[in-house]
Amino acid sequence: MPDSALRRPRRPWATLLAVLVAGAAQASTLERGNGPEPSTLDAHKCQEVACGNVLRDLYEGLVTEDAAGRLVPGMAQRWSVSPDGRTWTFVLRDGLRWSNGDALDANQIVASFRRAFAPVTAAPFGELFDALHNAKAVQAGEVPPAALGVDAPDARTVVFHLDRSAPLPALLTLPIAFPVYLPAIERLGAQHTRPGALVSNGAYTLAAWTPQANLVVERNLRFHDAANVAIDRVRYQVTEDAAAELQRFAAGDLHITEVVPPQPMASLKKRFGAQMRLSPYLGAFWLGINTTIAPFKDGNCTRVVMPRNDKANHGLSPLRDGCIDRGHALRRALSLAIDRDLLVRHVTGFGERAAYGVVPPGIAGYAPAATTWSTWTQVERERQARMLYRAAGYDDAHPLEIELRYNTSTPHRRLALAVAAMWRQVLGAHVRLRNEEWKVFVGNRKQRVITQVFRGGWIADVPDARNFLAAFGSDGPLNWTGHVDAGVVERIARADAASSDAARNAWLRAAETRLVQADAVIPLYFYTSKHLVDPRVHGFEANALDRHASRWMRLQD
What is the predicted pLDDT for the residue at 2? Predict the structure, then answer.
């Protein structure tokens, strides 16, 4: 026996205690895959899932959602609405505080809303609040932020004034409605989102952010419900590569994945069993087409001989006296050439549904629209696609050359490869695939300068058909296609003025029908949510918006 062992007796109880303490520390950190690097942690500028996931841990709005997606009180302990649905009053909880200990009152919430809608902020989701009095005018710089339809009659009351009825409590769960700490923004500008600077009001505070690696949040002891937050730390891992994310989960490095890579479902179920969570999800995946540039821009009409057949010409506009718009014909040809059933069976493969519209099923009272050719066979679609491709001026001797742009992701790459192969096989088009890091992709898509065809889609912010259509009602920052049709705008306006839910949904369906007939977007499929969840994670519940705030979960062996 070595001398050291004789001089320092072993103490099994100390070793056991150290192991238990280390195990407890490890168990209190939730490891979450989060997809791409968040583009921002400025709550008012967030426009994607990656930042939304983190911001829902850092902040809380007047209204929030529980684990099952139900609306529950947030900063507000109660609220009420006037009989006409246009005035909402929210009463705050007692003793609300920021993470730095400062008091949080109604006047700060109002000031934060004014900052969100100020032109300099350029909040991308501002247009979702177009029912809020003067919201559009404030964003356009036509009136000052103080004219926004929100005020604070006293320190514990916030009142919203709407120009029409709208589902305001659901909208208040969005990051744009979170309060931000204005003194830090005034002092630090864009740097207010860095660790040590970001002051939040939610269940967690920002502890660390390593770009392109991970982001760590820690429990906020000043949160009004801190006693019921079970997990001390959450590490959001950047996991753009879905296959690598799965391997990290299998190795025990992650408790929750953001997605599941496209692999045979049977083998994944055999490997992971109940750890694989699939559920319906209000999301639509489509390809967008930049209609502001050639060759997809409307207005170039050519005379062609078209068969006298409803299937050959129905829905193309304009189409009269043998004159067809080349840009529209080309967009329709690209859409018809894609075999959606093949995509959802063999490329996505997790129960997704083929899409022929932009609003997914599952929204109460709404019957989704679809293209006029959704009931055709794929053979009929491809025959029509080739005819329209030739009518647009392309053939084997002069093939279309385009770029299909998508953000870095294994599922997106597989889908882009499949679509490019279909366009090559059916039409003879030459397709260049361009993948970009998320921030670069978002910027290019928004600017509409170099994009031609791009990965698009929409994940519901609220369970409302209008949420999927609003971006196409103006030439705003969310209308990445640049397609603005007066008919769509008019129908959305009529829906806003409707006196009943049935009439409102009917007008929204008319707007969706007109939109899909224009072929500015190519619907491909409706999402399912898919995650791998470690058995030690409790409180992770399926919900239609696929939102899973860490405050509702706990880790338990």
Answer: 36
Give DSSP secondary structure letters for 227-238. Answer: GG---SEEEEE-
Task: Give residue 316's pLDDT band: very low, low, confident or very high (50, 70, 90).
Answer: low
Residues 6+ apart with CB under 8 A from 204: 57, 58, 217, 218, 219, 220, 223, 229, 234, 550, 551
Buried b (16+ CB within 10 A) or exposed e, 407-434: bbbbbbbbbbebbbebbeebbbbebeeb
Q: In Å, what is the CA distance from 110 to each residue of 134, 145, 346, 378? A: 14, 10, 50, 54
Identify the CA nearest to 457 among candidates 449, 467, 448. 467
**Residue among 304, 553, 287, 501 nearest 402 (CA):** 287
Residue reference for tokens 């079970």 = 230
The rounded distance, in Å, linking the Cα atoms of 554 and 295 is 53
Q: What percent of the chain is predicted at pLDDT more than 90?
A: 79
Q: How many residues are listed for the chain in this entry? A: 557
* Cα→Cα distances 338→294, 371, 415, 423, 466, Å: 21, 14, 11, 7, 27
Contact 272, 353 (CB under 8 A): no
Q: State pLDDT tens for residues 362-408.
A: 998 999 998 989 999 999 999 999 999 999 999 999 999 999 999 98
SS (H, E, C) 395-440: CCCCCCEEEEEEECCHHHHHHHHHHHHHHHHHHCCEEEEEEECHHH
**Global pTM exceeds 0.90:** no
Q: Which residues pair with 63 in a beta bridge?
A: 73
**Cα torsion through 14, 16, 18, 22, rounded to 10:** -170
CA distance 362 to 110: 34
